[in-house]
């Protein structure tokens, strides 16, 4: 059941009807049932695995909390975390091996839906219990729901256990304002996914299928398109997930904060896939940094690079994701190493500070556009082929540098412009939604105007909607 | 005075209640007035339109109807039905909302209201989908055909024909390109009116499902052009989403193995049956967006085909090798049974494909199909089986650059032959293999 299907809309509608007409006390149980029904629609076997993981983590959490000795707690936490990571690694590496040895597609292993997300959630929970920042969860339903909560299982966000458990109690009295906000959020997410991301998917697929057919300009355009597609796609599904959660009274964490306007790489990673990067910062980078602190700055840089390689490999055990992580690690180390000098330089030259405010986001954006070529490519060699083909005069290519063949790219000028306008409009809305003054102004507008706006957005989404759409991040 | 004073609030409340009462009255009165107007003036309006625009309407109808007056009257009746259903459903929605408002609070209230709207819209679509007007509103034009819309328009209009017997052309695109209903209707005027209700890519099972959706009680002939494709071809079962319904579930289960038991097509069909909005989604979007998806998909598919017909034939023939046709054969038996139950003859043209494809295909596949069809025809006198030796032989040149679809000249030739067959059937009312004219 894809998020973008009639079946899913019907499922959510039915779930909402049952949820709100059922006695308030039964709502957490119902949410768990809905989550498993959703998961069963993907794979009954994997649903069993998810249930087994939830059961194991529940027992491990209680066992950590009840253990009297520090050593015993540590051993139990390590065992629990190690088992979860082995599970994650086993599936991801099995896929890697089957690809490496070209196994029969019928026999190939499929990674359980949302495995990366629920494993990270559960690892975080066990570590929180061990660090005693969170009491062990006594209610199995609550913990199982935390792992399986259906809006978040496909593509996150990675919600912290404490935040999630704290909201379970509020399920008995859902806030109408949150419900309405959820509907708006879903609409906005659908708009980003269907109107922006899906339109740009066609030129991106074309240029990555065979870069040698395209000019440098077309490849550059393809790289920009992918950066926007990925962001619109991922932030779109996050909006939908957060919105659906809000309909049921559970608000997930934010995942994006206008990342493409970040002044530097550090800020970019604080605004991109925020729930994962903050998770990795807390549960991987900080412990790693602490254990490597004896190495001084070298320890810091090593921790940064390892953290980013982990981010890369989280997407899949492939060389392209490894390189994507490594490249971002290098970006980050260089940025950290030069930050003080840069700050000093610009402080001494206030006139240039204005230029920095513009060039900073531009440079950051282009560095990420470059890194995302690796993210999108199937293999490392195809990524380098893409990068090489972008360089004018590279190889024996007959295609002229500045050619821009719309038909070959699968785009048309007017819809493309509309798509870019839609993108900047969506960014403006995201920016405004974070400012209370703008929110207040919007809600002082006549109800008729607001409803007309929602209807126009919904109509646009319906008109652009195509069947069988998938989300890029649903495969991680 | 303060805007929220009790007096003001009371007058606002009574004003709103007054408005609600007026709306209720309007929703009750509107359908009544519409039916009275239809009864009083429907015939006159239809005859005026017939006199003024009859010729234009006939041209626009492209052979889908013969009597513009009757067509206009039918459309007016459809409009009245849709208006009545809309008014009644609005009343039902208002009643449901009033009950919900008394018992529930937001957000539960919004959820219930949302469901009420959804249910009402589905009921409206279910009612409207039985009318020709609804499908005519979704018509995308002659050059941009949406198959499901076309199918329903023709199905809804076929009963308007005055001929004593009705015939339908069912099956895949081969039926469409082989038999021209206009030629049949010209040759059989006053005897049989033929409507072409093919759907591209249909298997035998899809054809059986489509037959079930044909409502006319005057249906006497089901004509299908059947080559190896609907028996052995690997179609994507998309038609099931459009034609499969709850009532088809028990017979489908009884049909046994041969296709995935409970896949997305079956689910889609059931969903479409329960929620008609799901079923009309694609035609509706094609109407709103223009440039329909099926046409684009077909163009993409055509572009992906091998330019060499021999190469294409080899690939297709390879796909047919070892294909399991047991499910489609069992579906054929049900199709024949359904025709018997409806008292209509099943005319099966066991036709050919392009000789290039025939040469590439393993001859045992055709033998297997023909053995099965002969066996069925021998067992069931209701089946009129037309075999290769009786039908006009089609050569490579008849197919232009295609393996399955003939050109216009071959179509005309074949259609004349089918008209002769039907004429002879009416005259002699006999069946069998040798009763029909040999074109050579």
Please explain how this structure is put together:
The complex is a heterodimer of chains A (476) and B (440). In chain A, α1 runs antiparallel to α2 and α10 crosses α15. Chain A has 20 helices and no strands. Chain A is mostly helical. Chain B is of the alpha/beta class. Helix content of chain B is 64%, strand content 6%. In chain B, strands 2-1-3-4-5 form a five-stranded parallel β-sheet. In chain B, α8 runs parallel beside α16. The radius of gyration of chain B is 26 Å and the shape is globular. The C terminus of chain B is likely disordered. The chains are: A mainly alpha (476), B alpha/beta (440). At the A-B interface, α1 and α9 of A face α3 and α13 of B.
Fraction of helical residues of chain B: 55-70%
- Which secondary-structure class do the elements of chain B indicate? alpha/beta
Number of helices of chain A: 20
Largest sheet of chain B: 5 strands, parallel
Key terms for this structure?
heterodimer, A: 476 residues, mainly alpha, B: 440 residues, alpha/beta, 5 strands, 6% strand, globular
Q: Can you describe this structure in just a few lines?
A:
The complex is a heterodimer of chains A (476) and B (440). By secondary structure, chain A is mostly helical.
């Amino acid at each position: 059941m894809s998020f973008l299907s009639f079946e899913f809309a019907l499922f959510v509608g039915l779930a909402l009807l049952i949820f709100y007409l059922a006695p308030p006390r039964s709502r957490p149980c119902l949410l768990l049932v809905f989550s498993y029904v959703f998961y069963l629609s993907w794979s009954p076997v994997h649903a069993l695995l998810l249930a087994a993981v939830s059961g194991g983590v529940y027992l491990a959490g209680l066992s950590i909390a009840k253990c009297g000795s520090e050593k015993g707690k540590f051993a139990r936490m390590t065992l629990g975390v190690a088992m979860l990571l082995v599970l994650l690694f086993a599936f991801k590496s099995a896929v890697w091996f089957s690809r490496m040895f070209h196994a029969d597609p019928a026999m190939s292993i499929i990674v359980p839906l949302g495995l990366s997300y629920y494993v990270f959630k559960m690892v975080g929970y066990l570590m929180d219990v061990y660090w005693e920042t969170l009491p062990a969860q006594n209610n199995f339903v609550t913990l199982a729901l935390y792992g399986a909560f259906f809006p978040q299982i496909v593509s996150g966000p990675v919600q912290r256990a404490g935040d999630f458990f704290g909201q379970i109690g509020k399920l008995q009295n859902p806030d109408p304002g949150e419900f309405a906000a959820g509907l708006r959020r879903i609409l906005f997410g659908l708009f980003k996914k269907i109107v922006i991301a899906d339109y740009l998917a066609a030129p991106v697929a074309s240029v990555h299928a065979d870069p040698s057919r395209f000019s440098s300009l077309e490849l550059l355009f393809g790289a920009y398109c992918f950066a926007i597609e990925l962001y619109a796609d991922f932030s779109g599904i996050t909006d939908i997930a957060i919105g659906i959660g809000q309909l049921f009274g559970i608000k997930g964490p934010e995942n994006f904060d206008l990342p493409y306007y970040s002044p530097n790489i550090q800020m970019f990673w604080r605004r991109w896939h925020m729930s994962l990067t903050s998770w990795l910062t807390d549960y991987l980078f900080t412990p790693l940094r602490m254990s490597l602190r004896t190495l001084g700055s070298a320890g810091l840089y090593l921790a940064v690079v390892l953290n980013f390689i982990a981010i890369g490999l989280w997407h899949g055990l492939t060389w392209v994701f490894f390189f994507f992580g490594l490249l971002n690690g290098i970006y980050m180390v260089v940025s950290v190493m030069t930050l003080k000098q840069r700050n000093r330089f610009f402080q001494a030259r206030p006139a240039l500070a204005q230029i920095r405010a513009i060039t900073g986001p531009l440079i950051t954006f282009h560095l990420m556009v470059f890194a995302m070529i690796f993210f999108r490519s199937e293999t490392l060699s195809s990524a380098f082929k893409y990068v090489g083909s972008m360089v004018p005069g590279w190889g024996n290519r007959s295609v002229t540098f500045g050619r821009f063949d719309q038909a070959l790219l699968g785009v048309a000028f007017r819809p493309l412009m509309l798509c870019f306008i839609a993108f900047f409009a969506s960014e403006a809305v995201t920016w405004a939604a974070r400012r209370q003054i703008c929110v207040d102004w919007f809600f002082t507008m006549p109800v008729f105007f607001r409803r007309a706006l929602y209807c126009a957005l919904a109509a646009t989404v319906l008109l652009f909607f195509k069947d069988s759409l998938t989300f890029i991040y649903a495969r991680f | 005075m303060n805007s929220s004073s009790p007096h003001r609030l009371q007058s606002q409340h009574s004003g709103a209640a007054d408005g609600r009462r007026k709306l209720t009255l309007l929703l009750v009165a509107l359908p009544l007035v519409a039916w009275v107007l239809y009864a009083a003036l429907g015939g006159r309006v239809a005859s005026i339109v017939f006199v003024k625009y009859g010729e234009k309407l006939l041209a626009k109808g492209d052979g889908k109807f013969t009597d513009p007056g009757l067509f206009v009257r039918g459309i007016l009746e459809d409009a009245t039905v849709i208006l009545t259903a809309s008014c009644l459903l609005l009343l039902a929605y208002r009643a449901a909302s009033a009950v919900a408002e008394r018992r529930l609070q937001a957000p539960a209230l919004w959820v219930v209201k949302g469901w009420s709207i959804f249910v009402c819209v589905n009921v409206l679509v279910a009612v409207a989908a039985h009318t020709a007007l609804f499908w005519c509103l979704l018509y995308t034009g002659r050059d941009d055909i949406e198959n499901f819309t076309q199918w329903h328009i023709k199905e809804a209009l076929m009963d308007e024909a005055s001929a004593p017997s009705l015939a339908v052309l069912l099956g895949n695109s081969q039926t469409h390109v082989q038999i021209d209903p206009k030629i049949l209707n010209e040759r059989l005027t006053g005897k049989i009116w033929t409507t072409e209700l093919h759907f591209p890519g249909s298997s035998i099972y899809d054809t059986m499902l489509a037959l079930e959706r044909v409502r006319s009680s005057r249906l006497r002939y089901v004509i299908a052009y059947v080559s190896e494709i609907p028996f052995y071809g690997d179609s994507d079962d998309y038609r099931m989403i459009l034609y499969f319904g709850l009532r088809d579930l028990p017979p489908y289960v009884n049909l046994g193995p041969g296709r995935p038991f409970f896949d997305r097509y079956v689910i889609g069909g059931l969903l479409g049956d329960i929620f008609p909005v799901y079923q009309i989604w694609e035609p509706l979007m094609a109407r709103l967006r223009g440039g329909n998806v099926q046409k684009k998909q077909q163009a993409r598919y055509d572009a992906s085909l091998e330019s060499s017909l021999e190469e294409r034939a080899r690939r297709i023939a390879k796909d047919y090798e070892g294909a399991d046709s047991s499910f489609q054969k069992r579906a054929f038996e049900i199709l024949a049974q359904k025709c018997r139950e409806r008292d209509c003859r099943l005319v099966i043209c066991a036709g050919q494909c392009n000789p290039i494809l025939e040469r590439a295909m393993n001859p045992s596949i055709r033998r297997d199909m023909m053995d099965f069809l002969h066996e069925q025809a021998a067992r069931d006198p209701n089946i009129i089986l037309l075999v290769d030796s009786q039908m006009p032989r089609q050569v490579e040149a008849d197919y232009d650059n295609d393996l399955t679809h003939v050109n216009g000249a071959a179509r005309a030739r074949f259609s004349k032959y089918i008209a002769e067959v039907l004429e002879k059937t009416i005259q002699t009312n006999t069946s069998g293999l040798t009763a029909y004219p040999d074109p050579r």
